[in-house]
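Quick bug: Transcription antitermination protein NusB output formatted oddly.
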Amino acid sequence: MTQREVRDEIFKILFEHEVVGSNISDRKVEVLETLKMSKAKKEFFEKYLDNFMLNEEEIVKKISERVKGWTFSRLATPEKVILKMSFYEILVEKIGHEIVINEAVELAKTYGDENTKGFINGILGDLIRNIEN
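Here's what came back:
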């Protein structure tokens, strides 16, 4: 399983959580039982979801500060989840923004509509400019 495939599984769990309020911890266990991942990928997967849950409220606040003319609750679910993942990766995990943006755009191509990629790119660009200044 590639890193991108692991991220895709994380997206699916967070999407389900956003739509139906599923328990992330329960879903994490179920996915780990059904998918074959290397030890390193399992550790990444578990750490990502555990730390994400600890920081989700703060992440939503940070996204809300960047979404101009909209409220977070009005965003489409794919945009919410991609932004949450991206903000988490940039602000909490300190993953390089080039990697995060690339992964976010790939998720947007798969799960969003034709406007999702540009919207995500704009919000993340604003975040990064703010961090760098």
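Actually, after a second look the formatting is fine. The two ends are 37 Å apart (CA to CA). Closing.
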